[in-house]
Amino acid sequence: VQYFDQTYFHQLARLAIGTALVWAVPADGGTGIDRPFIAAPGLDLFPNPANEQVRVWMDLASAAPVELEVLDLGGRIVGGHRSGTLPAGRTAVDLPVGDLAPGGYLVRVRAGTTVSARRLMIAR
Fold this sequence. Notes:
single chain, mainly beta, Immunoglobulin-like, globular
C-alpha cells in the first residue's frame, strides 16, 4: 500500500476475494515467474457458489498433466485434485468441495506450464 505513489502503480491489478482480503499484484507478469499466469480466460466454475461439488471447465491448448488446487484467503492449499494428463480442447473435471467451510476460495489450475485461477464461493 505504501508503494502506490510509485511510477509502476498503473501496472498493478486488484484481486478482491470476498471482503476479507484484497491483493495488489503486478499485472505485467514480470518478477521472474517462469510460467504464464492466466487470469481465467478459458477457465469456468459451475455452479458458483457451490455446495458439494464444482465442475471446473478448462480450455487446454495441448494435452497436459492437470492439477487443481483450492486455496483459502490466506493462500493455504485446503483441497485439490490431480487429474493426470487431459486432452487438448474444452474439458471438465469435477472437484469435491463438500468438506470446505462456507466462504471465499481460489481454484488454481496447473496445466503443464500454464497456471490459471478463478474465485469460488462455497455456500450452504
